[in-house]
Every structure is written in C-alpha cells, then in structure tokens.
Amino acid sequence: MLYWRALIATTLDVVAILSSVAVAGLIVFLVIARYVLELSVVGLHEVILLFAVFLYMFGAIIASKKREHLTVDWLQQRLVSERAKAWHDLTVAAISLIVTGFFLAWTYWMLDWGLKRPQVTPGLRIPLWIPQLAILAAAVGCSLYALRDLIDAIRRLGR
Hints:
- This protein is mainly alpha-helical.
- It has one domain (2-71, 78-158).
- The protein has helices at residues 2-36, 44-65, 74-78, 82-116, 129-158.
- Helix 1 runs antiparallel to helix 2 (44-65) and helix 2 (44-65) runs parallel beside helix 5 (129-158).
- The longest helix has 35 residues, at 2-36.
- It is elongated and about 65 Å long.
- The mean pLDDT is 87.
C-alpha cells in the first residue's frame, strides 16, 4: 500500500512540475518568438492551454491529497471536543463527496460526448478528449480523497 501511495504522489508531482515548466517555458518562447523574432507560432496557445489544464487539474488532486484545498475553518477552530471536530469533518467530507460525485458524473458525460462527437483544436487539431482526460483524472482523484476523508471521520467518530 505504501508503494502505491508513493507512486501516486510521485506521478502527481511529476505531472504538475512538467506541466508548470512547459507552461512557463512555452510562454517565454511565445514572447520571444513574437516580439524579438517577429514570428507567429500557430497553435502555441493551444499547447500552453493544454499543459495549463493538466497543471490545474493535477494541482487540485495534490491539494485534495494534502487536505490543502480551499476551506473555511472558522467553525472548526472554535470546536473544542474531538467528537464535535469529527462530526464537523464528517459533514465536510460528505458534502465534498457529493460535490465530487456530481463533478465525476459531469466529467464522464463530457468525455463520453466528446468521444462520440470528436472535436479538435483549430490550429494543431489536438483532440479535445486529451485535456478532458485531465479533468476526469481530477474528478476521480478528488472523489477518492473525499472518500478517504469521509472514512477517516467515521473512524474518528467510532473511537
């Protein structure tokens, strides 16, 4: 189990780092090409946006894994008993699981529709199902981490 966790964490980090480097590097290249070399590179924006989608989606998975996603913790900070904190965490995890369930269903329908009616980007003709796979990965990953948080809260309530 520990091997799989390490493999998943490493894969997430590698995709995020490579996507971040690609976005930054391609934007620098775009600026140099346009303003120094006076070249217009067709499709470069599409590639940058493709990497940006992967960066954002895998960043969301990493934030969910580390429990660092956006939260409002005003109430949680005021709760004193461990049982009350566990109930709060259970409620938050249940809501997160429901929301990520909707996200998962929506992503599945989007990808299904995109495969039945294939579309491509205008410049380089990149199939749109490629960035949609990143969105599906985020939906699956965030749903699994929400489930993890729900199970953790249930275990804490059982103590």
